[in-house]
Write a structure and sequence with these properties.
- The complex is a heterotetramer of chains A (about 500), B (about 325), C (about 325) and D (about 325).
- In chain A, about 35% of the residues lie in helices and about 25% in strands.
- Chain A is built from 17 helices and 24 strands.
- In chain A, α13 crosses α14.
- The longest helix of chain A is centred in the N-terminal third of the chain and has 19 residues.
- The termini of chain A are far apart.
- Chain B is mainly α.
- Chain B has 13 helices and two strands.
- In chain B, β1 and β2 form a beta hairpin.
- In chain B, α8 packs across α10.
- The N terminus of chain B is likely disordered.
- Chain C is about 45% helix and about 20% strand.
- Chain C has twelve helices and twelve strands.
- The mean pLDDT of chain C is about 90.
- Chain D contains 13 helices and four strands.
- In chain D, the strands form two sheets. A two-stranded antiparallel sheet of chain D has the order 1-4. Chain D has a two-stranded antiparallel sheet with strand order 2-3.
- In chain D, α2 packs parallel to α12, α3 crosses α11 and α7 crosses α8.
- The relative contact order of chain D is 0.20.
- The chains are: A alpha/beta (about 500), B mainly alpha (about 325), C alpha/beta (about 325), D mainly alpha (about 325).
- Chains in contact: A-B, A-D, B-C, B-D, C-D.
- The interface between B and D is large, with 60 and 55 residues.
- Bound molecules: adenosine-5'-triphosphate (ATP) (2 copies) and magnesium ion (2 copies).
- The site of one adenosine-5'-triphosphate has 21 residues of chain A, from β2, α1 and α14.
């Protein structure tokens, strides 16, 4: 049996000032096995993987790789011993090319007479990309010219290549939420690759908040909660409900999207969009958003829904068309103008656009509505604290207190902070761009409940769902876009929920 | 929806991409355009500006700022800054004058003296980089301190009365020509080629760009970021040192004043060429153009006898115009 | 005056602009010559360098007074003339005897401040004028030719006055034409570049007037690169050693030696005398309080005498006889 | 003041503040041991007075650094303001203060406009402005220092008033620090400043007024620089077209010494008091203990590096040190 074990984690703990991120975790990874890792935001998944690859050492405990002691001091050492990792946050150098990124840190292999032979490197890179089924990305392209999904594919092929190259023997590949920015088609490609690796005898640890993915791909699932390993399920035992119960500590209420609570929108039109367009991105987009309505936008990457979002949030100006807010024409030159009217968004890219990482939770939550924290002319720290505490409690944010820097929160908890900011802003129209990306199921449920509650209170929501399910479950109405134009408007009222296929056929 | 609309969005997209590419191309060549426009204007206003003699003069004047800014470029590419230019140039100018044949000391090390002094420059850069990395102090502050320390040491080495250089080989760097071009210009070209190779054909060059883009990524990838940083500062110090040496060869005296007032022209050359201070963008090619712009501008203003009161203002405005043409401002670009 | 209570350590602050011009080191040398000549007290010479900043000069002086207390005397070369007014206030308040060289604030007079002992100045305008004249006379056709000029730092008193001297000389010599002038900021490297550029366009100039010797030497180097040294006349001010050598070699034609040793030595001798109570500053005559010191024009004519007296040997002074310098200066 | 420090602890760790103060204590102790006169009443007065101008300039610079930008025109704005003050004083009397400050507003605003509208890095926008204002200072002063006539000294004599050993100049400077402190910590503008410094893109998406805030920040910095020019004029009794030049890098260095991150988002004006104090103490102390002039620059450089080692804020692991 022990012959079959590739990697062992013995009683590993990790303590940060004020946080016990991991407590006495042990696991075995067998050769040629895909292990799923699930847990709430901040449960310690990323922390564990970072210890495995060597970004940080464990506070206690030990690890073994192929029966030998394994204690990498840096990721390079981990790589050499046959461990590779795709990080949760992007880790490609955006001003270098795809090829240079794939062999980043490995340039020595291409040295010829002291100089790097770029041509050889790009040829090799082409092959590496081809191996993973990527043929439409040129290795000479700079990363910054690729969209996020493509970057992710490059990243994955890079790690797969590194792991394969490291040794003839079986290696271990760590994937921290690799699918959160991928489209369904890309996810399927990825899964095919993962299975191929498995068949070659490599092992994979796979982290995701999408339980269906976990169930689809994993041979075994470890469940984490508050730094403890609270469960281990074999493939055949895994059900969504079991996972949920272990992760959250209570059983799912079943009614995931709270459809029962969905109310019908009111008559009043809050936002009226008349024939707006953005040159080269989309055109002829018109719709009305009613008070209390949740309006979903669906479409594949490049369909233009993101750009509609950017225009409504004031980030870019439309090249044509008009926007009316509460009956009056409005023009936004920056998101601040939109916020003044009462429109605010939860942006898609958390690290780049969402959090103010250097600042405390308190500042992050109150920044969009400082007037609410004023007492007289000045901003009152006390009020800021009250507001923050309220949202920390409401959204169940895992943190030491409101003075903690947001950059030290786990991915999902940081997302909750962005959400809290939006909720605290007293806006009338909320633009939710992938609001639950990287958020664990428990928190998702809370967020769904909040969205419902807000809609019922008369707020209007524009939703770009993280999944199609989410869009269907939450929206009153769905607009489908394809190649820059609206292809269909679909009713999604309480008793009239469309099937996924009904939407997909207008997307493709 | 009709096929026509689909097509037109696609067409629009293509047109847009084309326009953006055009604009990008313009920003990329903006420094060249600016340079040509400046040359054109000076050429029209003063017939002596475009002449063989002045061409040689500009090449000679270009050398020191070019060499120094080629060094500092690597530091800027990492998003750091090197303010030690004035001090370290002063130091090497003073030291080299005492090591080659001179009126103050009995030394006569010739070429060896130059090599030692170049190493002193590199050592100063090394120390700056080392302290920045190990003590985790912003390079702005370390190099600010280093400039002061180096200038102080320079004064101490010659105790205030500068040496006059008597080594004719050393003076030859400034006084002699090879193929009609001053030797110091050849040196600058060699440094340029080395810098270009460093940037384009070595892992070091890639790491410098990566650090400028986002330091945490190469760190995570297991690159020894600290070592790369120290190396970049060492290279910077080496070039600054060489600049000081050539400055003193030109002047024939080893005074700390050789370094004075070089920092801002050097930084201007780097930035006007299109290298971003935030790091990760630009490079030695840009710096070559930037150094040319700065040198030509300075040369032309003096040549035309522009009132010294106004020279600064004219330079300032041209710098702003030049950079405003060469800066890329994509959606969501952040200007610091 | 001060009561004598046995030997003390007296702090002699010498406030100057920079260490990068050797002229100032000769001033310090003169100050030390004076310090060595005093037996009653120990005199501790401290250089205060302003690096061209009026504010730093003021702060340095205050710090020096904090160090030496009432036992401080000061030699002040004001970074800019008006700064003397601010220094006057501070020294008066602190009860510290001081003096100024080169420039003093307009309307400021030693008579109005008991502790402001005196002001002496080589006449900058005269220096600028004299080297110009010496240069003009050295031309192939004396008094006829084209010249260029490199000024000091813009806005700096000495630079302004020396340039005024040049303009005066030009008005006396209508045959000489000033083609262009630029600011060299007292920086030799800058002077070098300016000259190089000039040489691309002005082929047939006869002379370059330069506001100080450090820059003049750089101008010589720029000429040397074109083989023009010795052919184009160069003149500067300060009389630093290398400039003297350049005159000997024929690379330069003139400089003005302002006798920095005398400045530094006597500059301190009088404030010290006042501090000791040997003189009563309120009873000094107008000439004793404010006078010009004669600069010594060094040119090819008198270079050998100068070398013998000032370079190979150092001048000697009798610092006890402080009045003599004044009357010598009046000559 | 200590209390105020603790309040800022939300942003900076308390511990760090004490470490910064520690740097001052070490410096003072060393200088005093070498020469007890360092702590004489006279010299304490010197230290406190000398801090004033740099502190006023430092306040504006702090804000600029907090948004992650830089202003290199501060020195020449100060020079220009100093000349404007000295030139207008004879004609306008006390109004001269307003003219000089108004110039600061205009100069700062222009920086802000060029920076945000032309969309070029602040380093360049202000580098250009530095040259332009330097020229303007030369031109309006006709290239010579403008002395303030003795008869007009009554307009500037307030700068010599002291309450005991506490100079009025410093009180003015500290009031400005206090205003900036309130602005930074208890106003929208201040919150926006920190947000922009922490993550400009994120701040924009959160509805922070980016361009307006930047413009205000540069305007404040312009006012502070002009204020410094005026204080220098009052101190030196003249308007000097080069007076601000040495302060360009010095002010940035002093603010950074005070723990404000050059990359923005971290720090504050209270730290700037410490930074300015450190710089002032080093410069003054070296003279008071009589460090050999040839060694002064060396010693200065060393102490600056040492002091910044003690004061720099490394509390955030996400603050990359560039
Ligand atoms: N360097 C650090 N310093 C302090 N606390 C940290 C650090 N890294 C992680 N933490 C904390 O450790 C806990 C576990 O974080 P981790 O990133 O492992 O969560 P996760 O399971 O990956 O969550 P998510 O699904 O949201 O990504 C969190 O409370 C986080 O705030
Ligand atoms: N034709 C195109 N070629 C390249 N990039 C494009 C194209 N169209 C859009 N993009 C870029 O791709 C990114 C995503 O586009 P879009 O707004 O359609 O995403 P999306 O459909 O919301 O993606 P997701 O499925 O992740 O939600 C944007 O940054 C956009 O600028
Ligand atoms: Mg995670
Ligand atoms: Mg008197």
């Amino acid at each position: 049996m022990s012959d079959n074990v590739l990697f062992k984690v013995n009683n590993v703990s990790k303590f940060f000032p004020g946080t016990k991120a991991l407590q006495g975790v042990s696991m075995d990874i067998k050769k040629g096995e895909i292990v799923g890792l699930v847990g709430e935001n901040g449960a310690g998944k990323s922390t564990l993987l970072k210890i495995l690859i060597g970004v940080q050492p464990p506070s206690n405990g030990s690890m073994e790789m192929r029966g030998r002691k394994y204690a990498p001091k840096k990721p390079r050492e981990g790589n050499k011993m046959g461990v590779g990792m795709v990080f949760q946050e992007q880790s490609l150098v955006s001003n270098l090319t795809v090829g240079q990124n794939i062999f980043f840190g490995e340039e020595k292999k291409f040295l010829k007479g002291g100089f790097v032979n770029w041509r050889a490197m790009y040829q090799k890179a082409s092959k590496v990309l081809g191996d993973v089924g990527i043929t439409n990305i040129k290795p000479e392209t700079k990363i910054k010219d690729l969209n996020f999904a493509r970057r992710q594919m490059v990243e994955i092929s890079k790690v797969l290549n590194a792991a394969r190259a490291s040794s003839e023997e079986n290696s271990l590949i760590l994937l921290d939420e690799p699918t959160s920015v991928l489209s369904d088609a890309e996810i399927q490609t990825l899964f095919t690759e993962i299975r191929k690796l498995k068949n070659e005898g490599h092992s994979i640890i796979f982290v995701s908040h999408r339980l269906d993915e976990i169930m689809e791909i994993s041979d075994r699932v470890y469940v984490f909660k508050d730094g403890y390993r609270v469960g281990e399920l074999e493939r055949d035992d895994v059900t969504e409900n079991k996972l949920y119960e272990l992760m959250v500590g209570r059983s799912s209420t079943g009614e995931y999207f709270k459809i029962a609570d969905q109310s019908d929108p009111q008559e009043d039109v809050v936002l009226e969009v008349d024939n707006i367009g953005l040159t080269g991105r989309f055109k002829d987009v018109s719709f009305k958003l009613h008070k209390g309505e949740i309006l979903g936008f669906c479409g594949v990457v490049g369909s233009g829904k993101e750009d509609v979002c950017s225009i409504l949030s004031g980030d870019i100006a439309p090249s044509r068309g008009r926007i009316k807010f509460e009956g009056k024409d409005v023009k936004f030159s920056e998101p601040h103008d939109a916020l003044k009217k009462g429109i605010l968004s939860v942006p898609k890219e958390r690290r780049e656009e969402g959090i103010l990482g250097l600042l405390s939770i308190l500042e992050n939550i109150t920044i969009a509505n400082l007037d609410a924290a004023k007492s007289g002319l000045l901003i009152s720290k006390k009020k800021q604290q009250e507001i923050s505490q309220h949202w920390i409690d409401t959204l169940n944010v895992k943190c030491t207190d409101y003075n903690e820097e947001v950059s030290s929160l786990s991915g999902g908890n940081a997302q909750k902070i962005v959400f809290a900011r939006m909720l605290a802003s007293d806006s009338k129209v909320l633009i939710l761009n992938h609001p639950t990306r990287g958020v664990d199921v428990g928190a998702k449920e809370e967020i769904y409940e909040l969205i419902r509650e807000m809609a019922n209170r008369g707020l209007s929501v524009i939703l770009l769902g993280d999944t199609l399910d989410e869009s269907i479950g939450l929206s009153n109405r769905i607009i489908v876009m394809k190649d820059g134009v609206i292809t269909q408007e679909i009713d999604a009222s309480k008793n009239n929920k469309p099937e996924q296929l009904d939407i997909i056929k207008h997307m493709m | 929806m009709s096929n026509a609309t689909d097509l037109s969005i696609a067409e629009e997209f293509a047109a847009r991409v084309k326009r953006e590419n055009q604009r990008n191309r313009v920003t990329q060549i903006a420094p060249i355009i600016v340079l040509l426009v400046i040359i054109g204007i000076f050429g029209i206003l003063n017939k002596d500006f475009i002449s063989g003699t002045n061409f040689i003069t500009i090449l000679a004047q270009l050398s020191v700022p070019l060499i120094v800014s080629l060094g500092v470029t690597f530091v800027v590419l990492m998003g750091s800054i090197d303010l030690s230019v004035d001090g370290v140039m002063g130091l090497t100018a003073a030291v080299v004058s005492l090591l080659v044949a001179n009126t103050k000391t009995a030394m006569d090390l010739g070429l060896m003296g130059i090599v030692i002094t170049v190493l002193i420059g590199a050592a100063a850069g090394f120390v700056t980089g080392f302290i920045q990395v190990k003590a985790k102090i912003p390079s702005f502050m370390v190099s600010f301190g280093m400039s002061s320390v180096a200038a102080g040491i320079a004064l101490i080495t010659y105790s205030g009365i500068p040496a006059t250089i008597q080594d004719s080989m050393f003076r030859g760097i400034a006084l002699n020509k090879f193929l009609g071009i001053p030797i110091l210009t050849w040196i600058a070209f060699v440094v340029f080629i080395i810098a270009y190779i460093l940037q384009e054909y070595t892992p070091f060059g890639r790491y410098v760009y990566a650090i400028g883009d986002d330091e945490s990524i190469p760190r995570q990838a297991g690159i020894n970021v600290d070592r790369v940083k120290i190396l970049a500062f060492t290279w910077s110090g080496l070039c600054i040192g060489l600049g000081g040496i050539i400055g003193s060869a030109r002047l024939g005296r080893g005074t700390v004043l050789v370094g004075k007032g070089n920092l801002f022209p050097v930084m201007t050359a780097i930035v006007v060429g299109g290298t971003a201070l935030s790091g990760g963008k630009g490079g030695v090619m840009n710096t070559l153009l930037g150094a040319l712009i700065v040198t030509v501008l300075q040369n032309g203003l003096v040549l035309m006898g522009v009132d010294p009161y106004f020279q600064a203002a004219i330079q300032g405005i041209i710098i702003i115009i030049a950079v405003s043409l060469s800066v890329t401002r994509g959606r969501g670009t952040i200007m610091k | 005056g001060q009561q004598e209570t046995g030997p003390k350590t007296v702090l002699a602050g010498v406030s100057i602009r920079s260490l990068s011009n050797p002229y100032y080191l000769s001033v310090e040398e003169g100050a030390k010559m004076f310090a060595d000549s005093v037996d009653e007290d120990t005199i501790d010479v401290q250089l205060l360098v302003s690096d061209g900043s009026d504010e730093k000069e003021l702060n340095n002086i205050k710090a020096a007074i904090a160090r030496g207390g009432k036992d401080t005397i000061l030699y002040v070369d004001p970074n800019n003339a008006p700064n003397a007014a601010a220094i006057a206030e501070i020294c008066e308040e602190a009860g510290v005897y001081w003096m100024t060289v080169w420039s003093t604030a307009e309307g400021l007079h030693p008579r109005d401040y008991p502790h402001y002992v005196f002001h002496m100045s080589p006449d900058d305008q005269k220096s600028g004028h004299d080297i110009a004249v010496a240069m003009f006379d050295s031309f192939k056709t004396p008094g006829k030719g084209k010249i260029l000029a490199i000024q000091g730092m813009l806005a700096n008193s000495a630079a302004i006055n020396r340039f005024k001297g040049l303009q005066k000389a030009l008005s006396e010599y209508p045959g000489v034409e000033l083609i262009d002038d630029q600011a060299g900021d007292w920086n030799p490297a800058k002077a070098l570049e300016i000259t190089e550029t000039w040489l691309s366009t002005y082929g047939d100039i006869d002379g370059i007037w330069v506001a100080n010797d450090s820059m003049a030497l750089a101008v010589v180097e720029a000429l040397r690169a074109k083989g023009l040294n010795g052919k184009v006349a160069v003149a500067g001010v300060d009389g630093i050693a290398d400039a003297i050598t350049a005159i000997q070699n024929g690379d330069m034609v003139a400089t003005v030696s302002v006798n920095p040793w005398l400045q530094g030595g006597f500059g301190l001798a009088l404030p010290y005398a006042a501090y000791k109570g040997y003189i009563d500053t309120t009873k000094m005559t107008e000439e004793q309080m404010m006078f010009n010191t004669a600069g010594l024009l060094v040119s090819t004519e008198n270079i050998d005498d100068y070398v013998a007296g000032y370079i190979e040997g150092r001048p000697t002074f009798d610092f006890e006889d402080y009045w003599s310098i004044i009357y010598k200066a009046m000559e | 003041m200590i209390k105020a420090f603790q309040k800022e602890g939300a942003i900076r760790k308390n511990f760090m503040d004490y470490i910064s103060l520690f740097a001052i204590i070490i410096l003072v102790a060393v200088f005093t041991i070498i020469n007890k006169n360092f702590l004489s009443l006279f010299n304490i007065k010197n230290l406190l007075t000398d801090m004033g101008p740099l502190l006023v300039m430092g306040c504006g610079v702090t804000m600029v650094l907090l948004i992650g930008s830089i202003d290199l025109s501060i020195g020449s704005i100060a020079s220009c303001a100093s000349v404007i003050f000295a030139i207008t004083l004879p004609h306008w009397g006390a109004m001269a203060y307003l003219w000089a400050l108004a110039f600061g507003v205009v100069a700062g605003l222009i920086n802000g406009i060029v920076y945000t509208r032309v969309k070029i890095p602040s380093f360049i926008a202000t580098l250009g402005a530095m040259s332009v204002w330097q020229s303007v200072a030369y031109v309006i002063s006709h290239g010579a220092p403008v002395q303030i006539n003795l008869k007009l000294w009554n307009f500037i004599n307030w700068s010599k008033i002291k309450f005991g050993f506490f100079p009025l100049v410093l009180i003015v400077a500290l009031s400005i620090v206090a205003i900036c402190y309130i602005l930074l910590n208890y106003s929208k503008l201040g919150k926006y400043i920190y947000a922009i410094g922490a993550n400009e893109r994120g701040a924009r998406m959160a509805g922070v007024r980016i361009n307006f805030t930047k413009m205000m920040v540069f305007t404040v910095c312009g006012i502070g620089s002009a204020g410094m020019g005026i204080l220098l004029s009052a101190k030196l009794k003249s308007g000097i077209p080069t007076v601000g030049e040495p302060f360009t890098l010095m002010a940035v260095a002093a603010v950074a010494l005070g723990g404000t991150a050059l990359s923005g988002g971290k720090g504050g004006v209270l730290g700037t008091i410490i930074g300015v104090a450190v710089v002032t103490i080093i410069n003054n102390g070296m003279q008071v203990v009589g460090v050999d002039t040839f060694w002064q620059q060396v010693v200065f450089g060393f102490i600056v590096i040492l002091a910044v080692y003690l004061t720099v804020d490394r509390s955030s692991r996400h603050l990359s040190i560039k």
